[in-house]
Amino acid sequence: MTLRLLLLLALTLSAPAASSEAPAPGGEPSRPAAALGPEVPRGAMARFLAACREGHYARAAEYLNLRQLPQAVRAQRGPELARELETVLDRALWVDLDRLSDEPEGDPEDGLPALRDSLGTIETATGPVEVLIERVSQPGGVPVWKIAASATARPPTPRPAMRPVTLNPKFCSAAMNATTATKTLSERRPSGTVAIARRCRC
Fold it and tell me: Helices 71-92 & 41-53, crossing angle to 10 degrees?
C-alpha cells in the first residue's frame, strides 16, 4: 500500500503543472475579400474586379477615383475607364487580393504615403508604373478606397509582348536546304557551313 502511494506521488510531481494563465489568442483569420466593404483596400478591389467580371462597368467605376475628370463626363467616361483598366490588369498585372490590407488605414508599413497602398507594378514602354489604391473622403460618409486617379486618368499601356514572326516560305526552303547540305558536307569540309551560309539568299 505504501509503495503504491509513493508511485502515485512520484507521477503527480513529475507531471507538468497546468498553466493558470489562458493561452494567448491567435491572430484572427482574415475575412474573405467578398465580405469586406470599400472601407478597406481589399474590399474595394474585390468589388471592382467582381463588377468587371459581371460586365457592370458603371458599378466598377464607383471604385475609381475620377477626381481628375470633369463632373459632366464622369458618368460616360467612368465605365469606359473601368473596362480599359480591366484589360490592362488582365494583360499585365495579377492583383493578389489576399495581400491587400483589410484595415481602414491600409498598410502602414509599405513605404508609401499614408492612406495609399500598392496594387502592383506594370512594365510599360517608358518604364515601370505603380498602380495605387487610395482612401478618398466622402461627403457626409465614411472614407472609402478607390483605384488612384493616377491610374484612372489614363490607364498605363503595358509593354507589348514579342509578336510571332511569319517567315517567308522561300526563306524556310532555303534554310532547310542549307541545313541539309551543311550536315552532309560538315564531315568532309569543316568550312562548308560558312560557304553555304554565304550563298543562301532569300
Answer: 90
Amino acid at 194: V
Cell of 112: 508609401
What is the reported pLDDT for 125? 85
Instruction: Name the DSSP class of 135.
Output: E
Q: How many CA atoms lie within 13 A of 21 on its CB side?
A: 3
What is the DSSP code string of 142-154? --EEEE-HHHHSS
Q: For 3, which DSSP code? A: H
In the numeric block, which cell numbers belong to residue 178? 542549307
Read off the amino acid at residue 14: S
Domain boundaries, the chain: 33-152, 169-199
Write the pLDDT tens digit of every residue in 184-193. Answer: 444 444 444 4
Q: Helix H segments across 21-98?
A: 41-53, 57-60, 71-92
Cβ-contact 138, 144 below 8 angstroms: yes
Mean pLDDT of 109-115: 91
> From the CB of residue 197, how many other CB atoms can be counted at a distance below 10 Å?
13
